[in-house]
Amino acid sequence: MCGIVGYVGNNDAYPILINGLKRLEYRGYDSAGVALVGDGCTLNVYKTKGKVADLEAHASGKPLGGSTGIAHTRWATHGEPNEANAHPHVSQSGNIAIVHNGIIENYATLRSQLSAKGYQFKSSTDTEVLAQLIDYFNTALDLPLLQAVQAALRRVIGAYAIAVVDSRAPRRIIAARKSSPLVVGIGNEGDFYLASDASPIIEYTDRMVYLNDGEIAILPAGGEMEIVNLDNKPVELNVTRVEMNISQLEKGGFPHFMLKEIFEQPDCLNDCMRGRVNAQGQPLALSSLRFHSKRMLNASRYIIVACGTSWHAGLIGKQLLENFAQVPTSIEYASEFRYRNPVINPSDVVIAISQSGETADTLAAVELAREKGAFIYGICNSVGSSIPRNTDTGCYIHVGPEIGVASTKAFTGQVTVLAMLALSLGMARGTLSHDEARQAVSQLTRIPGIIKETLERINPQVEQLAKMLTYARNVIYLGRGYNYPVALEGALKLKEISYIHAEGYPAAEMKHGPIALVDEDMPVVVIATRNAMYDKVRSNVQEIKARRGRVIAITTQGDTAMGDLADECIALPEVPEYLEPLITTIPLQLLAYHVAVCKGKDVDHPRNLAKSVTVE
Ligand code: M6R
Questions:
Q1: 554 CA from centroid of ligand 1 (Å)
Q2: Which of 202, 207, 302, 519 is the one with CA 20 to 30 A from 434?
Q3: Is 272 among the residues known to form the active site?
């Protein structure tokens, strides 16, 4: 939530900052702003409600010079989205500007203490309090800026990634992190880039330093970067080379990132499996298991923690792990898990699933599990993000940057990794023979081709169908077994980008209450593929039809019986039941997308949402 960009070096900062903000807009788009420091100690701050394009329009024609700057795109936590609450915030002395991602939890106390000292506030944000606190230590107590930042951060409770500029020291940025991500890019000739993730930096340099909690980076143009902690002790610099394909950050001819990411899934899943399937003479070879097999194989229990779409993938993972590895597996919302007193034993393995690797609740669940001595396995997409850096081992899903706020390719990537993990563990534990594993892997490797064919075939049909759903006020999604989490995921997709109320249920639960909602105005999307549950689901469809509900069925090609029963059918190729989620989710992603487009919604930037939820 909220994206930060910074630049200090030999070039004009403004275009670098604006391009960077565009890359980070998925993190929030309530307001945007930029602070530019010129060599003549000028500080120009421009900010506005709305998106980065609105900021560009607002700043157009104004002085935009300066080779030092910081910028921000906001997802509002404290204070409504308006210009006053937009970042950067400038301190009372007018010298210091700051951008912030996170939450200062004790901001109300700090604000009243500062008010008593004569500080006046222009916004209702927690960030302005931090700007004034730094100013207080710097101006009133005469501490140099770095010490003032350290003193202020020692008094702050909460999460932050901040970047601070001072008009009196125009060639320097000070940045700090605690529980919110921040990465520094080291450019040529003493240029430094700063951002919430690597995507705004990668076109300038691949040499990155991921800051850890409690670290403060000092970035002097033309000089050497330094890192110190809050007590001013030096910290060793750990420079990582980051690989990222810039074309993955562009729409590539698609009208929206979400559609591009849906269509990318065949390639993404091939990337996800590359080097892992049919490698080293084995059906499967996950390096995370090779080096940590003892802990993983001897686990008395797996506990999956995740949020949102990743939690839905986890529900499928639970079934896969229990089915193939025969290890009891529970699945928890990270946000609930972290605040109760869960029983976690040192023999447990906690599996954290997160696309961004920055979700605050999942990260906190990981920390709790670590305190209790569990072994932590991460399944993440964003390379170098906080969760992979805080787990004992894990497996990247390698589907490339996901920009659309509605997660699509990350979900199928997560399910693919969970399938590979479950099959590998099953083989190693002897609950699955090598032959069975080999057959399963051969089925898994067919999936990208099946998705490709399916996407091309059903997209026009789903686009037509979406027109019928545009006027729906509620939609029910039903599925059973492996497809129950897909029903939840389909409903979430529709909710978040078209704002139509949708609920997913296990199909058999209908008769325990939700069926009361069914009438001729209620569309019901049913995943009714030919699998072990088929006859049961068919009965559920009959129950809905008997109450005049409109059924859109996701079926298996060649199933004429379901065709006669349902109002609309989207037919999919047959795959083993445990791999069905990778296929059945495709029409539901497309349906949500086309309904949102028909309704004229901003698909990639749905209201009130942000891609990376770095606050509780
Ligand atoms: O980055 P994460 O996978 O940890 O994010 C978890 C959820 O915030 C995320 O899946 C969210 O539900 C998506 N917007 C769903 O499309």
A1: 24
A2: 302
A3: no
